[in-house]
Amino acid sequence: MREDPSRPADDPDPTQVRTEFGAAVPQHPFLELARGTGDWIRARRLPDGIYELQHRGGEDPRSFELYTSDHCLVRDLLCAWLDDAPGWSEAAVWSPVDPAIEELERVRSELSELLGGLTMLDDLGAGLDLALARADELMGDLDAAALDQS
Description:
Elements: E1 30-35, E2 39-45, E3 51-56, E4 64-68, H1 71-83, E5 95-96, H2 99-149
Antiparallel strand pairs: 1-2, 2-3, 3-4, 4-5
């Protein structure tokens, strides 16, 4: 028997789906839908099958969030938002996101983008270290051969 009867029988098991993105895959995958810059909704899958939904809309500068393990609720809210269905946000209980938390998330995001480029430098540095170690080996062999000839 399938674990979730609402999923089609041929739907792949999400734990078995693989991508070719390697290190570019975010730790917590997310989907963001937007209408311009101030009207958006984001769903993010957290560990243990919990989903975090956040949205901001229209003239209200505040963001709202909710946490759920119900993937059907996530799907329904995303589709209702996308269709601009009247009263879509009243279908769930949303909590305002603390502005201080929002600012911390923004700074964390900016820093992770900045530091993401630095990991490439770490890889380059590791490659350079290996090359220098190999050069030391080769030079050591040349030094030993020179001593043997004298």
